[in-house]
Amino acid sequence: MVSDGAGSAQKAASGANIVCMELHRRIAAYLRSGGELQSIDKECVADWIDSIRDKIGLVANAAALRPRDYAATLVALLADKERAVVVHIGDGATTVRDRETKEWSVPSWPFHGEYASTTRFVIDDPHPQFAIVHIDSAIDRFAIFSDGVENLFLDQRKRCAPAPFFERLLQPVSSWQGHGRSRKLSAQLRNYLDGETVCAETDDDKSLILGARP
Q1: Residue 23's closest CA among 89, 84, 68, 83?
Q2: Does residue 134 sit in helix, strand or coil?
Q3: Exposure of 83 in the CB half-sphere (CA atoms within 13 A)
Q4: Which residues pair with 26 in a beta bridge?
Q5: According to the 3-state scheme, what is the secondary structure of 76-114?
Q6: How far apart are CA 38 and CA 83, in angstroms?
Q7: Where are the domains of the chain?
Q8: Is residue 127 within 8 Å of 78, Cβ to Cβ?
Q9: Which CATH number does the domain 12-212 belong to among 3.40.50.1010, 3.60.40.10, 3.20.20.70, 3.30.460.80?
Q10: How does strand 139-145 pair with strand 208-212?
Q11: Among 163, 136, 153, 131, which residue's Cα sits nearest to residue 209?
Q12: Phi and psi torsions of 87, nearest 5°
């Protein structure tokens, strides 16, 4: 999952960290109790989000700050060998590749408000608007990223994920023989994101997670 703190939020990084840590905790508990991906619905996700908001409220109160000072977005992808689910609040996005068809798609398009640099956040009042998208097929490649690289990664005119770009981007990960996180590949990815080509196009935060399944 990826969470991006609002640029105007005083504790943006802390807010993004709380979003990820608390959602991970709730999802882990859900799966340990026997919960299945196909059973994740609006009520279930709303409960997870309320838990995140409660945690932010406690932290903000202890620091004599407002929850708005911890504003952050959320893009989460849950997948098993047969299906996947996307939970999305705000901008940023995930792209996925269908194992059978090899087609890339954007299950939930980034949300941008009427004015520049505006979007939805987990702490929006009275409740945040969120998207839940069920993917009823297996995926074998994915990328999750923040809004800092949206314009580089997505075809905004056609509202799609350019397959050749994502095939190249995922090639080092898909050809790696190990499991989990590779320090070498992570370093290469960091160098790519910090490179002149990317930085010439954006000065925003650039969060990116790549994954592949044999």
Answers
A1: 89
A2: strand
A3: 10
A4: none
A5: EEEECCCCEEEEEECCCEEEEEECCCCCEECCCCCCCCC
A6: 8
A7: 12-212
A8: no
A9: 3.60.40.10
A10: antiparallel
A11: 153
A12: -115, 130
Q: Helices 12-32 and 42-62 meet at what angle, rounded to 10?
A: 140
88 and 76 Cβ atoms separated by less than 8 Å = yes
pTM over 0.85: yes
- Beta strands 74-79 and 131-135 are unpaired
SS (H, E, C) 1-43: CECCECCCCCCHHHHHHHHHHHHHHHHHHHHHCCCCHHHCCHH
Give per-residue pLDDT as tens, 59-72: 999 999 999 999 99
Residues contacting 69, CB < 8 A, separation 6+: 9, 10, 11, 15, 60
Query: Could you tell me the sign of the dihedral formed by the alpha carbons of 178, 181, 186, 189, in that order?
Result: positive
3-class DSSP state of 173 = helix
Contact 26, 79 (CB under 8 A): no
Instruction: List pLDDT tens digits, range 75-96.
Output: 999 999 999 999 999 999 999 9
| Residue keyed to tokens 């998207």 | 131
Sheet holding 93-98, edge to edge: 104-105, 93-98, 139-145, 208-212
Q: Residue 133 forms beta bridges with which residues?
A: 86
